[in-house]
Write a structure and sequence with these properties.
Elements (H helix, E strand, L loop, with lengths): L1 H10 L5 H6 L7 E7 L13 E6 L2 E8 L3 H8 L8 E3 L5 H4 L2 H8 L8 E6 L8 H9 L20 E6 L7 E5 L3 E10 L2 E10 L2 E5 L10 H4 L5 E5 L8 H6 L3 H11 L3 E5 L9 H9 L5 E4 L5 E3 L5
Parallel strand pairs: 3-4, 4-5, 5-6, 10-11, 11-12, 12-13
Antiparallel strand pairs: 1-2, 1-14, 2-3, 7-8, 8-9, 9-10
The structure holds zinc ion (ZN).
Length: about 300
């Protein structure tokens, strides 16, 4: 309880940009770093959704890249050359907006190995991830001057892949000697959306992305994860429209408890939830007894000893 209280006091104070600017993860071990802890709003002092997974001093996995996350990526001292994969939870602007800037920036690096990018299939509302990339960088895309990042004429290619949102079970997309990356489709109103799990040398972190809990699958994906990053975009009193897109604190607490995760990190914080952390915390703690943190930009969480 004492630990929770201290964490809460430290991180619920006003949008600590100065704190954010000095944060960095340790060179040893596996770490989650929050690039953007905000939602789509501006004037909240937060970048939109973005996360890195660091392993022994290298940023290997990038999850989402919303507005402002690329500036945080720079502040984190991550290198584009080190990235093994990009995972997108969905294609809302506050989760994918900085992708073109990242690709352009890579022109000035020595990256020479392909960069896979995974995201959801499309529907009548949103394009699939492969179509999204084509509409950005393809021959007829808005940024077609960057099309050589797709066609093999540059030292590396951006390689987009779709994850079928009709799948009911967890699917493993990558399984190599470094890590296993798994996904399950989640409900985000009409928007195709994926929750991600990264297991790396016995440690694990799960990203809910934006979701309601209508499909009730996140607790399966998050089973005994070291860290569950849950998007805390609404309060308990949110209306039906907001609940169609996001989960209230009671559902987050329920999922964290059912999955028996070691630590819960609340991100995608929005003006309607900022300043109401104590309320959310007490609702979550009715069900979940582990450590709860409210994320800030550039904050690092180690993926071990999270008891
Ligand atoms: Zn969204």
């Amino acid at each position: 309880m004492k630990k929770i209280l201290i964490t809460f006091l430290l991180f619920s104070t006003s949008l600590s940009l100065s704190f954010a600017a000095t944060s960095s993860c340790d060179k040893q071990g596996t770490w989650l770093q929050v690039l953007g802890s905000g939602g789509p709003e501006i004037n909240d002092g937060r970048a939109s959704s973005g996360y890195l997974i660091w392993h022994n001093g290298h940023a290997r996995v990038l999850v989402d890249l919303g507005s402002g996350s690329l500036a945080r990526f720079e502040q984190s001292k991550a290198l584009i050359n080190d990235l093994d994969v990009i995972l997108l939870t969905h294609l809302h602007a506050d989760h994918a907006n900085d992708l073109p800037a990242l690709i352009k920036s890579s022109f000035f690096t020595r990256r020479d190995r392909d960069l896979p990018l995974y995201g959801p299939t499309g529907n009548h509302v949103m394009p699939s991830t492969t179509v999204f990339v084509d509409k950005l960088f393809g021959d007829k895309g808005a940024f077609r001057y960057l099309s050589d990042f797709l066609d093999g004429t540059r030292p590396y290619r951006l390689l987009p892949f779709n994850v079928d949102i009709l799948l009911k079970d967890i699917s493993t997309l990558i399984n190599n000697n470094r890590y296993q990356i798994s996904a399950i489709p989640v409900d985000h109103g009409p928007i195709p959306a994926i929750a991600w799990r990264v297991d790396i040398e016995g440690q694990s972190v799960v990203f809910s992305g934006d979701m309601s809990n209508k499909k009730a699958v996140l607790s399966r994906l998050a089973k005994q994860a070291d860290i569950l990053v849950a998007h805390h975009a609404i309060n308990e009193v949110a209306n039906r429209v907001a609940r169609n897109l996001h989960m209230p604190p009671s559902e987050i607490g329920q999922i964290a408890a059912k999955a028996d995760v070691k630590r819960l990190v609340l991100s995608h914080r929005m003006k309607r939830t900022l300043g109401k952390e104590q309320q959310a915390l007490s609702i979550i703690q009715k069900q979940y007894k582990g450590q709860v943190d409210f994320a800030n930009d550039l904050q690092c969480f180690e993926l071990k000893n999270n008891k």
